[in-house]
Design a protein that fits this description.
homopentamer, 162 residues, alpha/beta, Rossmann fold, four-stranded parallel beta sheet, 50% helix
Amino acid sequence: MICIAHIVAMKVGIADTTFARFDMGAAAIDELKKNASMRIERHTVPGIKDLPVAAKKLIEERKCDIVMALGMPGATPIDKTCAHEASLGLIQAQLMTNTHIIEVFVHEDEAKDDKMLAELAGRRTREHTQNVIKLLLKPKLLEKDAGMGKRQGSEDAGPLRL
Amino acid sequence: MICIAHIVAMKVGIADTTFARFDMGAAAIDELKKNASMRIERHTVPGIKDLPVAAKKLIEERKCDIVMALGMPGATPIDKTCAHEASLGLIQAQLMTNTHIIEVFVHEDEAKDDKMLAELAGRRTREHTQNVIKLLLKPKLLEKDAGMGKRQGSEDAGPLRL
Amino acid sequence: MICIAHIVAMKVGIADTTFARFDMGAAAIDELKKNASMRIERHTVPGIKDLPVAAKKLIEERKCDIVMALGMPGATPIDKTCAHEASLGLIQAQLMTNTHIIEVFVHEDEAKDDKMLAELAGRRTREHTQNVIKLLLKPKLLEKDAGMGKRQGSEDAGPLRL
Amino acid sequence: MICIAHIVAMKVGIADTTFARFDMGAAAIDELKKNASMRIERHTVPGIKDLPVAAKKLIEERKCDIVMALGMPGATPIDKTCAHEASLGLIQAQLMTNTHIIEVFVHEDEAKDDKMLAELAGRRTREHTQNVIKLLLKPKLLEKDAGMGKRQGSEDAGPLRL
Amino acid sequence: MICIAHIVAMKVGIADTTFARFDMGAAAIDELKKNASMRIERHTVPGIKDLPVAAKKLIEERKCDIVMALGMPGATPIDKTCAHEASLGLIQAQLMTNTHIIEVFVHEDEAKDDKMLAELAGRRTREHTQNVIKLLLKPKLLEKDAGMGKRQGSEDAGPLRL
């Protein structure tokens, strides 16, 4: 009984952007609802550089136990710099809160066309949602996969072939 | 009544520079006044690397609920490095205050001539001012636009075409 | 007696990833068990950018005296950027806790084939595990090796030849 | 009377280096003395990477209201990296103290010969000293110049020509 | 008498690495002993990325008044990135402690052969040790050299020739 009460109490924050060209937030929420009984808080911001403080606010003001930071950086050099800045801020936000923030970024130049990019964004978001559930509820499953060359969105690299 | 009192109480900080070649601060203030009843605090500094502490002072000393950090980085490599440093500082300032700072940077090499650059600077500033209003007063409008490929200053990319 | 009690009380944190293609965590734990009587805490996360907060949680929540942060960055430019971001976060985590976190990263392009990469990952992990033991229990052994051109995983460069 | 007392009480910190090839500190102090009744504290350090903590100590230990960080980065790639690191540290120091630190860097490759470089260093230092005075005593003058394309050391770019 | 007591009480921290191919720590300690009556604390770590927390621990746990961070980054791109990360961490450690940490890095590609590299490492370490003594005991000597183009390890650039 205590265990179930614990699961119900867990809260996942979803930080996403209007810049993204795919609704990664909706995909994450759908995957969460299908697989676990979490409470969900969502905070949508304009772009990826707004995600670090959005995630920190979800943790500190809206009491999330973990946050997913979802974004789609563009393909130009300035976009890559923005993604780098956002990533550094997300790491810093985690260190300030002792809370995991799972960054799910899909770069616009990772796929050949819009259709494949949407599929990649959906798959990566959903597979990282599974990681979020494991981090919160089943950390031993991650330990079992240590060193197994897991990838999110594309095929696993797998362990080194000896 | 409580709602209106709340709107009146909101305060927006404007941090801008003398380095910029367009008065982005004036555009932001004009757009704010046309669309909402916010109080406004302005702090003009020499260059974009002065913006992070300017924004933090607007938040902590002048009690702003959100800040717009407005700047126009030049076109040379050293200017790009300055913009990168300023962006990292702005993210850090947000994390230290749990307050959004909306960065509005217009790079001098983003347009072909002075006239187009001024138009871009005006449009981007005004469209980000709309984001600021939404973040403060109507966050559900941002959520509705999640994944819609919104851009500020140029045409929206729109959602991926499937 | 006090000395032995002290050794028994020491706790080493192992932070590793499911992204890695070699179980560096298992290698570190094996090497620790063969060489010292440490208590071990393990926290496996998806990727290297999750390591900084994982290490900080091991230190602050699970009371580790030192942490090993184990990862295998990929070979593409974005992977190199991720490794850079993770490294900066690991340094920051150390400064926030006054605790050493020994980063053991093996880049996928450091070896010609899977077999050599696995051997490198194993050797580097084990040799850094020896450093961890020295940092905790025998710091004078490190001082004796100061300036000796030590390398982990490959042959020592040795001191400059005069 | 209160106003004058206030002006007298203001203290400006000068952080400069022995690495620089021009005495920017002396230029700043001369310009300050000619234009305002400020108290001055000086802290000279070896190189630009020593400036962030020097500035923070001037603020926190010697009670400066603002600091000028003066340096002359060299022309090689490693020098550029040092300047980048120093700039990030200066921004961080400002955020930790809520105090402006005006960075005045003159890169050795900004001028064709020693004479022009010295003139540039002198002019930029003095023009930024004017900014320091405005930030402390006449912030409305900076606001009036918002978006006017001001430059320090070289000719103003001016506002965009429409 | 008070003055002498003060000098005796000063403590210098030496943070160095086993990765370096020259015993910079020994050179610094020798130079310190020849020139001043400081107490010395040494903490040797594996590599330069371990130096920031080593320096902070020397300051906070072993009460050093200043620290020298000594390292020899390798010549490859990844080594340069490591040096950059270490430098950023050292600046951050200084800001967190309001204490100078003098970074003395000698890059492996700064000299043509082992002999010249060793000489450079020795000279730079000793000349920076002189800076450390000045920072602690004779800050006015540094101020006298402001803008004089001082270099450590190689010939001084000297002031600009007008």
